């Protein structure tokens, strides 16, 4: 069984990412639970989505403190915020994107300079990827979440193969955007953090 | 049929469709909205009503006419619909009637944390509570049969984590349900005192029949494992408990949370050594169990009335287990915010440039105007309250402050209009700002009576807000563009200076709506 917490900012495409993971696992005959947050917090706030799947029965759709094997973060500060849910020894796959929250923009808070290093210092295994650059290279910045899923697919023990992910992408992404997204997935998959 | 990953709300829609639902009327509200959006994708009549009271009354009408009907809403929506709810219990149904209510423990998107199970008890209506998407589907199908079998509305209670989680569902196909004949029945459908007395007797008897049904129904389930710890639970807490305690505990999982199955509960308590009741929010099941027997029940006194439970919490309280985790402190918070270019922001900026205003707020995206840097709202209570509370403040105030109400187009239609009628009738010089962004924004862009489109996307007669306000007696109605800073500021200054009720309609479509329309156009192309 694997528990993946997806953290980001409202509007970054965390829901699609969770759907891809969920469908890939379901197609593989695994039990799956995905929990989403809709409504007010989607308006530019911190958003977390939980994905849990495995060969055994999955009960809770929620990941508690210390419960995530993998933290998939679309933004540095959100990775830091969700670290509390990571299991000791778990892996963080983080996009090195920074989005200032309103509290920083209006000057009542400061964006931490070194989120990735803070995560490493706290004891997490961190894979940091400039997923935005990978998505641009693939041909569309909107594919940034798919590039990051590619990195996760290669780096983490999910019980799913590259083909399982590609099949889920084919199922869920509209035909005209599929090629760009498959390319982004591939670039993410082949990415190596120094 | 192979398994599909479905949102809880999507599974409710599938269950209703497969049960042969023929009429659906709802008002959007997180976390219930998608139930109705998914139903609208089927070939079933479905609509957005202007508020939840109207939705439940419409559904009751369709039920009386002989069709299976459903209304869905969030917990606070059931407060609006409470009036028809209590008497629908008396009339009972003809076609099955199901009311879905989604509670929001943890208040992910709500103004309070009410426990709607109390409504089932107070209105003497059976309430089912599913714990995952497969049960959402199965319980909804069962609910329509129960409704017709016992001549009662059925409430299905969800919480955010069930409504907004995906798990696998195997659908079992559409039942063929024929429309029931309508026969005039004054004793059943006209609730005047003489008839209602007869119906009250009926619903008390019905209650007893439903208790007997509940004792043996497979909607409730006992699972004996190790009997040292026994857990009575329902809904999402069952999943948390199962996750936390596994086979080291036994479980009584209640799918019917009202009325409660006495014998079943007592049998379970007798068979376990240490009995826990695990439920979020109020000790609804626990107090019932405690009232029936003074036994060593553990529950609320060890947990919390506030927010959500979790598997980790159950593990640590029931088993005393410790769980270590990492943490980083002092990170800047990221609260939700109005989008870039949002017309509401422009209205708030204009309001901010005027000194001495009290601003009563309402439920919608513009509630975010209460957060810094705007910090513009003085109050926010419930749908429509911005207008009525402004009236009360105006009548009560002794100071010189001008009072302005701020609410959206959909919220104004939902229940702002009655407050405005009161403002005119009882002569208060309030100024109501209707932030008309031509959609129901916060819940994800649903149409409403003013947008000119139905839930199914069909063109309809659009409600004219200017004419509506004039018709209730407001003589000062002006319409402005929020992007025109000078115009909007001037309008607010003019109207707050006037010694009579006034309405300023600030009209500009939601920026996300535009993006959405452009996307769907490019998809078609």
Uncertain segments of chain B are: 521-525
Strand order of the largest sheet of chain A: 2-3-1-4-5-6
CATH hierarchy class name of the largest domain in chain B? Alpha Beta
CATH fold annotation of chain A: Pyruvate-ferredoxin Oxidoreductase, domain 3
User: Which of globular, elongated, flat, extended, rod-shaped describes the shape of chain B?
Assistant: globular
What count of structural domains of chain A? 1
Question: For the record, what is the CATH homologous superfamily label of chain A?
Answer: Pyruvate-ferredoxin oxidoreductase, PFOR, domain III
Number of helices of chain A: 8
CATH superfamily of the largest domain in chain B: Thiamin diphosphate (ThDP)-binding fold, Pyr/PP domains
How much β-strand is present in the residues of chain B?
A: 15-25%
Structural class, from helix and strand content of chain B? Answer: alpha/beta
Major beta sheet of chain B, specifics?
Answer: 7 strands, mixed
What proportion of the residues of chain A form beta strands (DSSP E)?
Answer: 15-25%
Q: Which structural class do you get from the secondary structure elements of chain A?
A: alpha/beta
Quaternary state of this entry equals heterodimer
Q: Low-confidence segments of chain A, ≥5 residues, pLDDT <50?
A: none
The fold-level CATH name of the largest domain in chain B is Rossmann fold
Work out the helicity level of chain B.
40-55%
Kindly report the greatest chain-chain contact and the residue count on each side: A-B, 57 and 51 residues
